[in-house]
Amino acid sequence: MELKELTRAEEQLMQVLWDIEKGYVKDVIEQLPEPKPAYNTVSTFIRILETKGFVGHTAYGKSHEYYPLVSKEQYQNFATDKLLSGYFDNSVQSMFSFFVKKEKIDMKEADEILKLIEELKQK
Fold first, then answer.
1. Fewer CB in 10 Å around end: N or C, the chain?
2. Among 26, 53, 68, which residue terminates a domain?
3. Which pLDDT score, from 0 to 100, does residue 117 have?
4. In this structure, is residue 74 part of a structural domain?
5. How far apart are CA 102 and CA 58, in angstroms?
6. Domain ranges, residue 116
């Protein structure tokens, strides 16, 4: 299945479903920040996520318990690849440099990244 990009609202609902692993619409709403969206709004968005292949459900009478079909890691890979190719010409170096210049990476994080690079070199 080819993943599609999520809207900000869809991604927010997926974040909740990834966290709770499965739940009903009311369970998703409970996890959302104030002001809480209307039940019908969340229900509609979850059904859209279902048609996009991100969410599945189990029916219990008229109730539906929803769960992710796409893992958070799968979507992270998709989103990162899209970011890298769309804005940084597939260059991790360009992306890293951008975050350093924007001061989004502090020295501690930079040290951790360097440790990861050293570990990769030793493999």
1. C
2. 68
3. 81
4. no
5. 45
6. 91-123
